[in-house]
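Contributing new records

If you add data, match the layout below exactly. Sequence lines come first and carry their own label; structure lines follow with theirs. Keep one chain per record. Anything else will be rejected by the validation script.
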Amino acid sequence: MEKQLQSVVQTATDSLYHVTFDSLSIHFLQGKVQLENVRVRPDSVRHDVLLAMGKAPASLFSLQIPSLHLNGIQFLATLWERNLSFGTLQLSHPHLSINRRASADSISTLAEDLPSPSLHVMLAERLPAFSLDHIYIDHGALTLRQDSSTVPFHVPDLSLHLAQVQVDSIAALNPERVLFSEDIEAVLPSFRHLTADSLFAMEIGYLMGSTRHQSLQFSSFRYAPLVSDTEFRSRHRYRAQRPILETGAVTVQGLDYRRLLEERASIMQQLRVDSLRLDLYLDKTQPQPPTSSSPFYPHTLFQSLQSPIHIDTIRFTNADLRYSERAIDGSRPGTVTFEHTTGTVAHVSNTGPPALTHIAVESQFMGAGALQVEVAYDLLNPTLDMTYRGTLGAMNPQEVNPVLVNLTGINIERGMVDGLWFEMEANESTATGQLQVTYRDLKISIQDKVSGARRLRHRIQTFLANRTVLHGDNVAQDGSPPRTATVTYTRRPQDPWLGMMWRSVRNGLFYSIGLDPPS
């Protein structure tokens, strides 16, 4: 039996892999087979030969199974009818290691890494039918390595249940079957992975997925640095943005698992994120890197993906978004917040006919003003092509002081905003459009953004601003329409996507009240 099993594996893998085990027990009357300490290992000599011939797969697999039990075997049917049928296959604490060459094509799929012809093809050729009612993989481990020098990606405790596995030509053509299985259920209690520099950790809560229901969900997600902001700054010689991303439950519906495994294609109907928190911080007192990389823009990132992706709708609820920035000549960060945010992103796709991606968001700006924003974005255009519009309800402008004072030294003493609207369009170089804000009885003061002091020069600047520059009102007493600012903002090379949008709107606000926008 051992020699036959080894022969099947070697033939199926072009002698690249061999199998060994410590013990084998067969119970004909009970229909059981038990193997202990099964090991599937690559042959390094054969791999070198295939590598020299240009036929070696990009990845090598190693598998160790401490205990393997087969139950419900129909031995007579197997012997006389060549019909291999099992009740259950149970693997306890298996460990699969995948080592991938650093020079391998990053977009090759798992199916391309497997030997040809594959094991299921050989079984289908040698047996009229091969079926398994259930496969249980209990507390398995998975380790992925790009090469020997990188930190491995390790999943420590994954359980799988495969139902009604059938290897035949009909099952192979059935688009509803994944890995010839009617359903695959996966459970991962928790998962944690550190980046190569051990600066960030990614943590996923309880995860559960099902191919039959085309669903995937996990209870929480967190990606954050393991050090304080002060330590994060000291770890970087040049300025770097510090992100923190946290979510509650994340649910994927309509996920095409078959295309995910065969093509690395992310095809899904809906992605829902609850209780999202995004916190970004940038310290501009640090120097710019000598060779700065391109800032984040969705269309450049999207077009860099070499695998198919299609998401009908992304929905997020109860989100809090926070962006903090410390000015070059400042001591404290200014923080902009968007609280109690809900939104949808419709049509994120690089498959099928080109179509705009639409983003609609509702939020509380600085916790005080009702904000609505709509974005239409061409993700497939090689250059930036986007329109964005929004409205802001009535609010006390003093709520904006936490960001204005620390970044510009401007403090709003009094006033009332009745409303705001803007309409912009952006290309690779500029953002242009119009903005109108209606407000009353606006008065400001200017102070030192570091100490908060109001020295003589600040008092003179305050007097001149309020008396000769600042427009105190934008509600005409004679019934004429309010002033509308025309905005032309030239995008800087270091401007990130949201930063460009924010600065174009911010400049329109400064133009409206009669002040020059900060640099």
